[in-house]
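The aim of this short unit is practical: by the end, you should be able to scan a pair of folded records and say something sensible about each. We start with the first protein, listed as its amino acid sequence and then its structure tokens.
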Amino acid sequence: MASFFDEIARNKMKSILLLFLFSLLFVGIIFLFTYFLGLGIFGLIIAVVIVAAYALFVYFSGEKFVLKVSGAKPADKNSNPYLYDTVEGLAAASQLPMPKIYIINDPNPNAFATGRNKNHSYVVVTSGLLSMMNKTELQGVLAHEMSHIYNNDILFMLIAVIFVGAIGIIAAIARTSLFFGGFGGGGRNNSGIILIIALVLGLLAPLFAMLIRLAISRRREYMADANGARIIRNPQALANALKKIEQYSKNPQAQPAKNVNANIAPLYFSNPIKKSSLMNLFSTHPPIEERIKRLEKMY
């Protein structure tokens, strides 16, 4: 059996290592953009400007985009007193500012946290989660989401989104430049082997970036499970919530989640996109059975 603190420390270290890999990949694609194409300092300036503009846009507009796309609406405190009281109590226990609470009209039981930092955060739940969970199970799910805020996961994942987007943009520009011989003739001065290496890197870098982002997402889910269980001192409540969600997902008559796409799926408590035959490598979330197993072993 593992303690809450052992599980949190283990997943925090793995997340840091994954972010380090992200940084190396980012440096590599910048190197591709500036050196292989012969752009020098001019290319570096272009890359930095592109990334900075993209990062600022995502940082200040990301939460509004997520709330709009998901169809979330502000929750009515009078109609949802237990929801408000629970979030308020968890915020106080975690020494966090009270996040804004939103509800999605969707029978699928789920939840997520978003925002750019602890002072600008949101907790979003579906109507299905509110109707399906008992009080302790709902408390467990909300503790998980508050843990994302406490652990700075909302910013952590925002950084991951920025990295993925920036790598994709720069790789696309690099590929286009390679096909046309590079800017300023830089591409024509390189050997064919180097051009092939550069082209392969330009094609594969976005895929590698996405895989690292998904791996980070899975690590942060494990850590939020552990920290959420620590806050409420009841890992079984969180495990029971996951069991109900798993049972619901196996119902052949269950409707698909509303207003969900691949960009916001990693934010959710449980993967809202129907499972496919793809390997777990391409999943935004750890296997739900493994999450339950780990929670039931915690003390």
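Turning to the second protein, read its sequence before its tokens, just as you did above.
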Amino acid sequence: MSDPAFRNLPPVHVLIARPELQASIGVRGRDAVLRAVRIVLDRVRETIRDDQATAPTEDALTLRVLEFLSGDRPRLRPVINATGILLHTGLGRAPLAEPAAEAVDRVVRGYCNLEFDLETGSRGHRTEGVSDLVVRLTGAEAATVVNNNAAATILALRTMAFGREVLVSRGQLVEIGGSFRLPEIFEVSGARLREVGTTNKTRLSDYERAIGPDSAALLRVHPSNFRVVGFTESVPIAELAMLARSRGLVTIDDLGSGSLGPGSPPGVSGEPTVAEGLSAGADLVLFSGDKLLGGPQCGILVGRKDAICRVSSDPLMRALRVDKMTLAALEATLWLALDPAQAARHIPLWRFLTTPLATLHDRANRLASRIAAGSKLSVDVVESNAFLGGGSVPIDPIPTAAVRLGPPWTPELGSEHALARALRVGDPAVVPRIHEGCVLLDLRAITLDQDESLADAVLRLVARRPYGR
């Protein structure tokens, strides 16, 4: 055991005075940060005593305190998404519009008329309000909502084809996030999937030959998280629906991402749309609420009135129904989507898609200048590519601007991975992208009011280091 090692440890009042920990005090409170400092110092003293280790530097101790605080915080907390993935599944997909967040706030602070008709005083239907808005938005005969799109698909298959065959192209049976495979999800419905065609080519004749006395439905699944390009062939939804009608079958169009129509949202092209599926004659069209619509997580079903009635009356509907918070956020989002100009201003995803590249460059330059002035990191602005993510438009890049942080690194932040981790566990948490040995802060999915917090988060880690004094 080395007495100098103990003497080299900073006292509590010196460590807690570090700018990074002072910033944490503003977020967590002095008592929480003081407790973290004392615990970290006690653990270091044990390590020195037991292993005859040397004392860590103040920089290293500060990082340990910040890491301790990150583990002592609520598990679910806000992050700044600097990855360039707009619908990042790990980060909660689409952020809500401010009117949607306000709507949630209004209904959670007390009681609300979730299933109560205020005019008649009798029991009401919880999805009636949003269903009416979805019908207005899409032109469908009817609509309903469940807790996510996988649930929508299970309900559609269960009500339309329980115990019978559903024909689907082999190339559309994909694996989605979390290692869930669509055939396994679909089979929960009680329907039997029958694959037709091949991975890269499926023709109308493949469906025609496969239809038999046990067939109930034709299913199109948009394989939104990947694309097969080159030597490919698929059947348009209009031809599929026409074949189904001629054979007395049901057509289910599972869109997943859910582009409403041309220009909704703006900047997205080549995606099958809800409007296309309905006009083609699909009996049910299914899509997500938290992807291209830019709303809360839910699954939306639109289509023929009799088909929606069957879905809504299924006993499983109660297990998959949405709560008042989801309904409030969805209703507010749908009101915005009825006016594309309003949606482009207020729905964050739609706004991210329409922000001019020149605007992102200007913001990136301001951020880079501030960070460079506070450290000796290599800091510059680069053009890069962002992506929609969340299983939407997987290969189409979106031009973006990013602040690139590079070496020299400190002993405590000895690599791009160490800096990225330190940003992730900081306050606020920042999730960057690592590229070619550097850390990129992509601005495409960052709001203007987050720029200052982003700069502060970086400077707390890289400012006043040995090379930055």
